Amino acid sequence: MSKTRIALVVLSLIALTVATGCGSDDDSSDESTTTGAVSLSDCTPETMETVSSGTLTVATDKPAFPPYFEDNDPTNGRGFESATAYAIAEQLGFAADDVEWTVVPFNASYAPGPKDFDFDLNQISITPKRAEQVDFSEPYYEAEQAVVVKKGGELDGVTSLSELADATIGVQIGTTSLDAVNEVIQPTSDPQVFDTSNDVVSAFKNEQVDAIVVDVPTAYFLTAVQVPEGTIAGQFAAPGGDTWGALLGKDSPLTDCVSAAITALNESGELPEIEKKWMSDVTSAPVLE
After folding, report:
1. Environment class of residue 250 by beta-carbon count within 10 Å: exposed (0-12), middle (13-18) or buried (19+)?
2. Residue 58's closest CA among 100, 111, 106?
3. Dihedrals φ, ψ of 71, to 5°?
4. Could you tell me the strand order of the sheet in which 119-120 lies?
5. How far from 272 is each of 52, 208, 275, 277, 279, CA to CA, in Å?
6. Are 33 and 265 in contact (CB under 8 A)?
7. Could you give the 3-state DSSP secondary structure of residue 268?
8. Beta partners for 145?
9. Mean residue pLDDT across the chain
10. Single pTM value for the model
11. CB 272, CB 266: distance < 8 Å
12. What is the DSSP code (8-state) at residue 55?
């Protein structure tokens, strides 16, 4: 994202906070919603340059896990990011039948180069380094980081990050979780880095690592489904915050329109309702300091 666009997004967020407050329930007309110089009323299937004419192509990884997607099926509209994608599409004038999903691995999403999707929703944190190669919309979610440890193990019951200093911690490469481990926990030994989230889980199950760090909602899914022998020791904030945005190709003509749609969803209260429905039960955990 260019410095100009970053400045416009920041100004837009400030204006929104002053006028309505974050997640306001006040009614607001889509016609007046703008981000930068773009009005949502100007963002229609007929005027937007999508990958396929008349179709909105949305990307995510596979498998697609709860609570972001249910039944490994992004097309069903169930789960936080599936529901958010369809809500964005509706704001842009696309019917559900006009939304097509495509599979893009997490690490490939923010690689430089052309994209075969219009935007990607996959718990992708907005970072300056990634923004050099791709565009991000305004944030649609802010996540904390969670530490998963073995039930009954030596780390079960820790109450501070300092107690994790000597632990062997597993994380996925290229994630904000890796940055959080290095900058916040600062373990005495380098974290063990794996290519995929499934590799991280396998390492935990095979006792190659003492703990794993992922975002809080993912931690709840892992301990409920994939690693029931694990428990969430607690949560902590990523350095600089961890906000997720829809990812688009660099200088995409759709970036401002997608941001305008997210702004409209926040102003109307629809996005907070989607978050409450799919995420409210999986975002509480003890805070580790």
Report:
1. middle
2. 100
3. 60, 25
4. 99-103, 56-60, 119-120, 243-249, 134-142
5. 30, 38, 5, 9, 10
6. no
7. helix
8. 215, 236
9. 87
10. 0.74
11. yes
12. B
pLDDT of residue 246: 98
Contact between 170 and 147 under an 8 Å Cβ cutoff? The reply is no
Task: Report the first-to-last Cα separation within the chain, whole angstroms.
Answer: 33
Q: Percentages helix, strand, coil for the chain, rounded to the nearest 5?
A: 40, 20, 40
Q: What is the pLDDT of residues 66-77, one digit of tens each?
A: 999 999 999 999
Residues 99/56, Cβ–Cβ less than 8 Å: yes
Give the SS3 label for residue 114.
coil
Residue type, 132: E
Q: Residue 6: exposed, middle, or buried by beta-carbon count in 10 A (0-12, 13-18, 19+)?
A: middle
Nearest to 167 by CA among 200, 197, 201, 211: 211
Q: Which CATH superfamily is domain 145-236 in?
A: Periplasmic binding protein-like II (3.40.190.10)
C-alpha to C-alpha distance for 279 and 209, rounded to whole angstroms: 28
Beta strand 38-39 with 34-35 is: antiparallel
Q: Where in the chain is the domain with CATH 3.40.190.10?
A: 3-141+245-282, 145-236
pLDDT, average across residues 261-275: 97
Backbone dihedral angles phi then psi of residue 122, each to the nearest 5 degrees: -160, 45
Task: Give CATH for domain 3-141+245-282.
Answer: 3.40.190.10
Residue located via tokens 């306001």 = 24
Return the SS3 of 82.
Answer: helix
Q: ∠104-111-203 over CA atoms, to 5°?
A: 65
**CA-CA distance, 230 to 34, in Å (whole number)?**
45
Beta-sheet strands, E only, within 161-266 = 169-172, 192-194, 211-215, 230-236, 243-249
Look at residues 129, 128, 133, 156 and name the one whose alpha carbon lies nearest to residue 229.
156
| The one-letter amino acid at 196 | T
